[in-house]
Amino acid sequence: MAPQVLIDQRAADQFTRPARILWSGAEALKEVRNRKPLDYFMKLFPTQLLDTMIQCTSQRMHENKKKTPVTKGEILKFLGARLGMTLEPRKGGLEVYWSTEDDKEGFSQGANYGKRIGMSFNRFITISQNLCFSERNDGVQQYEVSKHYCECFYARLSN
């Protein structure tokens, strides 16, 4: 049976069991309070997709004459920064997230992403400009790339 994605909230009524994450091996021994958001992210995000993002982004960086390929840690920091920006939106451009100064009224502290995530603003921009989720293939429709991602997520959640 092909994986299905439920969009209609009314269809969710047919599921009576609560959603849960099954931890295996040493993961199961770790207490819930000791788990970090990264533990949950790594459990749910397919490592195959992360590897593809690293490979394809590094290839694009090489094509664009960038000397340093992207690392797994940098991709995870980039995704974390983007998630943080979504959860804590700020007025202004991306550079406000790397600000270390308070605003004029002193109400808001600078987000200081440079220190918090350990990535310079220039590196963040370089990754953003070269981020690639799949190998380039002009013959493949965009929905095929999305379909591949959905299948990887489904496989990850089925294990």
Report how far the terminal alpha carbons are from each other: 16 Å
- How many domains comprise the coordinates? 1
Task: Report the β-strand fraction as a percent range.
Answer: under 5%
Structural class: mainly alpha
Number of strands: 0
Gyration radius (Cα, Å) is 19 Å
Tell me the overall shape: globular
**Which bin fits the share of residues in helices?**
40-55%
**Largest sheet: number of strands, sense, barrel closure:** none
Order of helices and strands: HHHHHHH
Count the DSSP helices. 7
The poorly predicted ranges are 1-8
Rounded mean pLDDT is 77
Please tell me about this protein's structure.
The protein is mainly α. The chain has one domain (36-158). It is built from seven helices and no strands. The chain has helices at residues 26-29, 37-44, 47-63, 72-87, 113-117, 121-130, 142-158.
What labels describe this entry?
7 helices; 159 residues; globular; disordered N terminus; mainly alpha
Write the layout of secondary structure elements.
Blueprint: H1 26-29, H2 37-44, H3 47-63, H4 72-87, H5 113-117, H6 121-130, H7 142-158
Outline of the structure:
This protein has 159 residues and is mainly alpha-helical. The chain is 48% helix and 0% strand. It has seven helices and no strands.
